[in-house]
Every structure is written in structure tokens, then in C-alpha cells.
Amino acid sequence: LSAFSPHSPVTSEQIEHLHRRFKQLSRDQLTIRKENFDSIPDLEFNPIRGKIVHAFFDKRNLRQESDGLADEINFEDFLTIMSYFRPIEMNMDEEQLDRFRKEKLKFLFHMYDSDHDGKITLQEYRNVVEELLSGNPHLEKESARSIADGAMMEAASICVGQMGPDQVYEGITFDDFLKMWQGIDIETKMHVRFLTMETIAHCY
Amino acid sequence: PVATSGPPSPAGAELLRWQWREVQAPCLVAAWILVASLAKIVFHLSRKVTSVVPESCLLILLGLGLGGIVLAVAKKAEYQLEPNMFFLFLLPPIVLDSGYFMPSRLFFDNIGAILTYAVVGTLWNSFATGIALWGLHRAGLMDPGVEAGLMDFLLFGSLISAVDPVAVLAVFEEVHVNETLFIIVFGESLLNDAVTVVLYKVFNSFVELGPAHIRATDYVKGVASFFLVSLGGTAVGLLFAFLLALITRFTKRVRIIEPLFIFLLAYVAYLAAEMVSLSSILAVTFCGICCKKYVEANISQKSRTTVKYTMKTLASSSETIIFMFLGISAVDTSKWTWDTALVLGTLFFILLFRAVGVVLQTCVLNHFRLIPLDRIDQVVMSYGGLRGAVAFALVILLDREKVKAKDYFVATTIVVVFFTVIVQGLTIKPLVTWLKVKRSDHHKPTLNEELHEHAFDHILAAVEDIVGHHGYHYWRDKWEQFDKKYLSQLLMRKSAYRLRDEIWDVYYKLNIRDAISFVDQGGRVLSAAKLALPSMPSRTSMSESSVTNLLRESGSGACLDLQVIDTVRSRRDKEDAAMHHVLRGSLYKPRRRYKASYSRHFISPDNQERQDKEIFRQNMKRRLETFKSTKHNVCSSKSKARLKEKGKKKAMSNKAPNGKMHRNVPWQEAASVLVMVSSEEEESDSSETEKEDDEGIVFIARATDEVLQEKATPGSLDVCPSPCIIPPSPTLAEKELPWKGDQADLAVYVSSETTKIVPVDMQKAWNQSISSLESIASPPGVESGPQHRRFACPVLEEQPQSASQVTLEHSSCFQFPSHVPASGRSQSDSSPDGAEQQELQPLMATEEQQGRVLPTTEPRWLMFNRASHL
Predict the structure, then answer these.
(1) Is residue A147 within 8 angstroms of chain B, CB to CB?
(2) Scanning every residue of chain A, which has its alpha carbon at the shortest distance from the alpha carbon of B488?
(3) d(C-alpha B287, C-alpha B243), whole Å
(4) Mean pLDDT rounded to a whole number for chain B
(5) Cβ of residue A142 closer than 8 Å to a chain B Cβ
(6) Which of A46, B104, B298, B314 could in theory staple to B93 by disulfide, Cβ–Cβ 3.0 to 4.6 A?
(7) Preferred mutation among A18, A24, A42 to probe B, highest tally of B CBs within 10 A
């Protein structure tokens, strides 16, 4: 239990909560597999559920300098993923904030970049948008595609500016991604409160 | 019979009668509104003044001045803010406006903080102020004339401590602090109404009963009534919001009264809540917040605009009148009695307790808030606690018999309101600047942002699910599912429900915005066009972009199609053809604009505008010079290709437009403007930049005859070297449309591939126009002999017109016949186009007249050609 990732400033109480939840999900195993997430009933309606679960097993999110997909994750990994969602703290200085922000964005970026090539290509973007819009059965795939195209256009215009005709915008790199997020306080949005967590017995 | 002077005799009929008495009331109302509105105009004449002094201050000062004049003239204060008028007529529009246009997401995200400040904060302020003043009174610091007990002071505290929505909105709208801060202060001012109303009523009844008769149950009742009033008011609001949404679902055939329903039902909600003494402000606020989503989806775009403007107008005029009358009312000295200790004490206490309350509450709230409110926010919140007309109206409503110190309270309230609105209102802006409060960044919403925010919501909800914590995101997610499944289906039209999606909405709006900005740019290009070609419609008519203008514009552009042959066509055909040209010009244009800008880019990135014009003129000139020859080159190459391989003419015939296109740039740019273009542009750009549609983008090497063609038009291609994007294949209809010549091939670019990014309803319009075009029986083409004969005749008339263009360069004119044999078919193809355009374009008539003199041999050439062809 003590071996949690060094940069997750979650209190021990929260870790205990999380550990209980982890055991609940893994059915008292040491690791969680993808199938374990199927047992969460509320997750079923989430349109981008696949992407989110995927992110838990994405090695890029788990530790630095690694790639690929893990088959199963242990509690430490679970905590690492959770630490992406911690809120900012009052006493952070500029540099910390910046790193913090980048970490969160990286997580998001990895979620979009499903083929791990460091770029969100149009096809990947389309997939995300399609999944996002899949909740609305009346919106056709075509419009999802055109929205993705439009978004990609916008991204290209933000990141590259005027483009030559032969120039091809292959996809959003992480730097471009950062550019797009300028002025939006992601750090104030992407967090979940672990503080008042109660173990959810009624899930089972 | 002339009515004699003096008392009118009943027998004689009167021509005119002085009826001031009948119209007096509405006339006065209208006059006051007019005065206030005119005053607003005067204020805004000077930017300097309004940027420093909030409008509310100016209005109060104006009111003071007017009140002084009335007092001086009539010797008594005639007008003042009547509480009844205020609560029944002036307040509802403002509250409805603020509720309806409240950013609901932001509001509900911060609802915890807002409720805390509204309920706890207001309670604290009331009691603390009341008790402190009472203490001051007991200490003997006040005038002995102030006959008031603890209950009186608590009553006064309750009415003076509530932050006023009207004043807050008036001042904060001009300050532009960040959204979170704004929504907290503003939300508080709206929601504290319930607390104020309850406290006011409870204490008022206590005062009326007298301290001796209050029993313990009365206190309990007071607490219970708080919940009843606030929750009841909210429930009434929700009920009416539901009704309103449901009604607008069925207004499809009575679009004209859609806005009326919104105003009526919201007002009825207000009155209903008032009737059963629930919190009417809460009722209207929640009615506005909750109905908006469904109502906006149901009503038409025009109704939406109407609602928006009417609401803003009503709210704005109410606000104006309220502040002006506050000023006027203050002049009425008979109503108030001054006591320095009370006034200063109240001012001091409300400022102090507000600050203390904010700091304490924020301290607690920050433990729960994810984005903590920092010191600076707290200062602004404390300082932004403005009091306003609600307090004034409430204090006027007090019963002098029961509340002995009413006159003192009135005076104090007026001073407090004036102090907060004028002094605090004036200083808050410098304060905000000085403290460097995070301002709201008014960046336009981007599609990516919207997409990511949606993704965020889902991610956060999912993480909460995984962690097993039922937090805010969890419930929000649940609510949205419920809304999607049941509420939206019940309250929205099927058509609206189907298309409703926030991402889609943003996408749609962005498209429209881009289109509008594009139209502006198009207008700029056109002004250059005007210099070069006097026959173009003027810039102003362009900006109006009425249908006739569009028709004319496209007409003027198309008159440059030289080969013109008339056919007998019905009116409908003409309209369709005109529409077709409008669509063609406007839908197709973006790509060309893109290229133009791209070529601009190549020459030099700076000085774009000047160069734009220059290039335009150069191109224009070159085009005039080489028009004839190039045209025939194109024609010949194409018809050759068609002759060679009749069935499969895709790749070859597509060559022509490439070369053609560049030279067309300036003309087409100037030709027409339509709002739907930018979506087109996006698509074309995206397809270009991302190479998504493999079949859609084919880069081909130029064939030989095109190279020749380039030689014939020296320089035109190096100005705009551009990629040649060739769509898979032109649709059959486009090829066979009788009024399209070589230019028609350009329209190929707007084939099915490119239309898909156009918003659905626009697509529909496009498809309709396409299908209507297809439905016109197109002339069979080369094979039908009689038709050619029919075509041949009008050439006599129309050909000269083309020649008139050429008169500038005689040499090219003489080239013409030699090319005719080859180009015969395409001439006959494209000719009706020009003919029809000419009918639409009376401007061209004079040119034609001039042209008549020109070579009469040409038609014969054509005739000959046709015969041989057959």
C-alpha cells in the first residue's frame, strides 16, 4: 500500500479508499484487467468509455519512456492514473503549475492518439468525435466526420497558420495540442474529488 | 355650427376635443421612457464619460436633476418610484432577461458557492446589521427621534442587506471580471431574493404584532416559510418552464407569436409566485434558466432573435427607468428624515459585515471548491455588494403607522443605495484594474474546445464511476442521460431533437460566423472590382445581398461568357438558372479565394491588401487581353477530348478547368457572395490539406495543350500558381446543363464530395437546387439537329456582345473564327447561360448596343460549323 507513485499527493486516507475500490474492482486480485471495468454499471452509458478504459492500460500514461498496452495494471498504476485527476493546490508556483498542466494534457493527448505515433491524425480525431456523438442516434456519421474535419481545420489554422497547397497537415502533435489549449485553464477543469469518497457498496 | 367658447354645449357636435385626462397616464409613461432613452443616447455620445462612469450613476444623477426641476416647477415632488409599479412591471423584465441569458452551465457549476453566499451571506448580513444598529441605538448614539426596537432594526437590516440584481448587473456588466466571479456575485444577487422576501415578511409581521405578542411558534413558522417561499418559488418557475417548453413545441404554424409565449408565461410565472407570496424572482429566474434549452431548440431562428432583442430592450429600459426614478424619488424630502449616526452606522456596518461574511464563507467554501477563490476575488466580491431599487421599494412599502422610524429608514436607504451605486460603482473599475483581477477573456468558442469539453465531461464522469464516487460529474451525467431520454423527447420538436447536439451547434455557429466574415472579405475584393469594371453592381448593393442583387451579380459575371445563344425558356427555368449561378459562384468561390490568398502569400506575406488589389487588376487586364484566345483553347481541347472518347471523358475534360480556373480568379471573386460559402471553404481546405478523400484529390500533370494555353496567357499562371484539385467526376447533370460552357466545368468542384461539410439544411437547399436543375430538360446536345438551328439564330444577337469585350484587342478578335469549328459544341452548350444572364442584366444592354456593329460574319461561321458538325 505504501508503494504508490511518488508524485501523487493523495492523502493516505484517500489511498485507502482507492485501495478498497481497487480490490472491489479486481475482485481481490492484485491486478485489474480490462474486463474488470465491465462490471461498473454506470460506465455503460459513457460514449467514450472504450477510450477511457484504454487510457488506464496505456503504458505511456503509466510511466515515462514506455509504450504499448498493458494487459493488467496493479494498484500503483491505478494510483498513477488517478493522480492525473488531482486538483491544483494553492501553493503551487508557476513552474509546477506548468508541469502539472502539461501532464494533464499529455494524458488527454494519449487518449486521442490511439496509434501511439505522437500525432492525432484526422482518422483518429474522427473516431473520437464519432464516439462522442454516438450518444445521439439521430446525428449521422457524416456530420460527425464533418465536425471532425472542421475541428482539424481549425487546429491546422491555429497551429500552422496559412498553409501552402502542397503542405499537408498530418495531425496534431503534442506541441500543437498545447497551442490549442492556450488560454483554457484545463488544470481547473480536469479533476475529480477523491476527498469525500465513500465506498460504493451498492454497486454490487 | 361652431362650438362657442366657454362650456361646451351638449347640443353642438365638436370637431376636436381636448382629452388630456384620458391619455394622461400612458402619455406620462411614454414621456418618461423617452426622456430616459434620450438621456442614454446623450451619455453615450462621449465614450470618455461612459468608460469611466457607469450608466447607472449617470441615470441616478439625471433623475436627481429632473426631480429637482419638477420640484422647482410644481413645488412638490410629483413622481417617485412606486413599489407596486416596480415589483409588477419594472423588475420582471430584468430578472427574466438575466435568467434567460444566464450561462446555465457556469451557474450550476458554481451553484454551491452561489447558494451559500445567497442564503448564509444574506442571513448573516441581515442579522448582523440589524443587531449592530440596534446596539448603536441602545448606546444612545442615535437621534432620540428614531423610535425603533430590535425588530424594527432587524426589519431594516433585512431589506438593506440584500445585494441587488439590478445594480450588480448594471455595474458588473461594464467591469468584465472573470466569469466565475461574475456568476457568483450575480447569482447571489438573484437568489438572495428568497431570503430577503422571507426575512422582510417575517420581521414585518413581527413588528406589526408587536414584540409582546410574538410566540415561539412564530419563529418556527418563519424558518418554515423560508423553505416554502424559496422552494415554492423555484417550483413555480420550473412548472412554467415546463409548460413553456411544451407549448413552443407546437407553435410550428404560428411562428409569429412564439416570442409572445415566452414573455407571457414567464410573466405569469412571476405573477403566480407573487400571488401566493412565494419568491417571484426565483420563479422567473428558474423559469428562464430551465426553459431556454428547449425553447431555443423549438422556436425559429427569427423568433430567437426577436426574443433576444425584445428581452434586452425591455430589461434595458426597465433598468433605465428604475435608476432614473431612484434619483427622482430622492428629491422628495417630505418622505425622509436625516440622522447622521444611523446613516453612517448603516454604511459602515453593511460594508464591514459584507466583507467579514465573504471572507468567512470563502474560507469554508475553499475547502470544497476545486478552484479556490483567492484574496482578490474576495475583495471584489465584498466591494461588489451593491444595493439598489429592491431595497428602496421595500422600504417605501413599510407602514408608517407600525414602523415609526420609517422616514429615517427611507433616508438611510436612499443614501446607502446612492453610495453603493455611485461611489462603489465608480471605483470598482479602477479597483479591478488596480488589483489585476483576472478578466474574462472573450475568445470566441472554438470547435476543438467544445469537443474537448465534451470529452472532459465524459472522462470525469467515467473516472468518478471507476473510483466509485458519486460526485458532481456523476450526477450531471445522470441528469444529462435523463434529459436526453425523456425530457428532450417530450419537450422538443422531433426535428429539433434530432439535430440538437452542442458540438453540432458550435460547429454550425462557427460556420455561419466564418461565412459572415467571408462575406466581408468578399466585399473588400469587390470594391477593387468596381474600379476595374464599372458595370459591376455597387459595393453597397453587394452588402445588402438581396436576391435581386445576387442575381444581378451573377449576371454581370456571367456576361463575360461570350457565346450566347438564346433558347425559349420558361420563367421558372430562368429562376432556376439564376439560382444555379448564385450557387455556383458562391459555393465554388472559396477555393478560388483560397488560391488567391495563397498566391498573395507567395508574392509577399506583407501588404496583402494592396497586393490583392493589384493582382486583381493585373489578372483582370490579362484576362481581358487573352480572354478570347484562351477561351477557345479551352474549348477546343475539351471538345476534342469529347470527340475522342465520348463515354469516358473524365480525366481529359478536367484538364481544361485547371487552366481556366486561374484566369477566372478575379472575375469569380467579384461575382457574388452568399452566406453558405465558408463551410465550403473549410471542406475544400481540409480535403486539400489532409488528403482525406483520395479520389477527391488528383494531382495531374498538365497535358500539352494546356501548356500551350499557358503560353497564350503569359504571366497569368505565375501570379497564381495553384494546385489542381480535380474531383472524381463531374456529375452528369452538370455536364448536360444547357447553359454551361467551359465554365460549367468549374462547378464540378462543388460536387457531392465537397458538399458534405455544409450544414445539413444548407445541403438540403443545395441539393434541391441541384435537383431542380436536373429536372429541367436539358438540350440533348450535339446530336439534335433542330435544336442547333434554333440556337444558331440568337447567336446573331448575342455574339456581338462578346465581341464588345474583345474590341479592346482587335487581334484576338480576328483569331476567333479560326477556332470556331472546333468549339462549336461547347458554344452551343454554354450559350443559353449568357443569354439568360443578359436578360437579368440590363446593365449590359448598352455594351451590347455598341457591339452590334461588329463582324457579322461570325454567325455564318457558326452556322457553317454546325452544319458540318452534324
Answers:
(1) yes
(2) A136
(3) 10
(4) 67
(5) yes
(6) B314
(7) A42
Q: How many CB atoms lie within 10 A of CB A87?
A: 17
Count of CB pairs separated by less than 8 Å, A with B = 176
Q: Which of residues 60-79 of A touch B (CB under 8 A)?
A: none
Q: How far is B457 from chain A (nearest CA, A)?
A: 9
Domain B83-435 bears CATH identifier 1.10.1740.10: no
For chain B, give every domain's residue range.
Answer: 83-435, 444-515
Round to whole Å and give the CA distance between B397 and B399. 6
Q: pLDDT for B46-75, tens place per residue?
A: 888 888 888 888 889 988 898 888 888 887
pLDDT tens per residue, range B7-22: 555 566 778 888 888 8
**Do residue B441 and residue A183 have CB atoms under 8 angstroms apart?**
yes
Amino acid at B480: E
Question: HEC states along B706-732?
Answer: HHHHHHHCCCHHHHCCCCCCCCCCCCH
Q: Which of A194, A174, A189 is nearest to B455 (CA)?
A: A189
What is the structure's pLDDT at B622?
57
Does the structure show a pLDDT above 60 at B625? no
Tally of CA atoms within 13 A in the half-sphere of B240 that contains its CB: 28
The whole-angstrom separation of Cα B455 and Cα B502 is 12
Report residue A166's pLDDT band, with 50, 70 and 90 as the boundaries: low
Q: Please determine, for residue B605, whether its predicted confidence score (pLDDT) is greater than 80.
A: no
Contact yes or no for B311/B97 (Cβ under 8 A): yes
Highest mean pLDDT among B198-202, B757-761, B862-866: B198-202
pLDDT tens for B631-653 read 344 333 444 444 444 444 333 33
Nearest CB partner across the interface for B507, out of A21, A25, A150: A150
Are B459 and A191 an interchain contact pair (Cβ–Cβ within 8 Å)?
Answer: no
Best probe of the B interface among A51, A145, A147, A172, by most B CBs < 10 A, is A147
**Rg of chain B taking only CA atoms, in angstroms:** 37
- pLDDT for the residue numbered B737: 45
Strand partners, B407: none
> Are A43 and B466 within 8 A, CB to CB?
yes
Cell of B317: 429600459
Distances (CA, A) of B675 to B497, B575, B748: 25, 19, 20
3-state secondary structure of A9: coil
> pLDDT, tens digit, for every residue of B696-713?
333 444 444 444 444 444
Q: Are B615 and B599 in contact (CB under 8 A)?
A: yes
Q: Can you name the CATH fold of A12-195?
A: Recoverin; domain 1 (1.10.238)
Which residues does residue B439 pair with via DSSP β-bridges, in sequence order? Answer: B177
* Widest pairwise Cα distance in chain A: 59
Residue of chain B whose Cα is closest to the Cα of A140: B499
Distance from CA of B47 to the nearest CA of A (A): 30
Distance CA A117, CA A114 (A): 8
How wide is the angle at C-alpha B385 spanned by C-alphas B381 and B391, nearest 5°? Answer: 160
pLDDT of residue B128: 93
Q: Which residues of B touch A38 (CB under 8 A)?
A: none
Rounded to whole angstroms, the Cα distance separating B433 from B429 reads 6
DSSP class of residue A31 equals E
Q: Is the pLDDT of residue B442 over 80?
A: no
Cα–Cα distance measured from residue B729 to residue B727, given in angstroms and rounded to the nearest whole number? 6
Angle (CA) B33-B39-B40 rounded to 5° is 90
pLDDT higher than 50, residue B688: no
Cα–Cα distance measured from residue B502 to residue B458, given in angstroms and rounded to the nearest whole number:
14
pLDDT digits (tens, 9 = 90+) for B372-413: 788 888 888 898 888 988 898 898 888 888 888 888 888 999
pLDDT at B765 over 50: yes
**A168 and B441 in contact by Cβ < 8 A?**
no
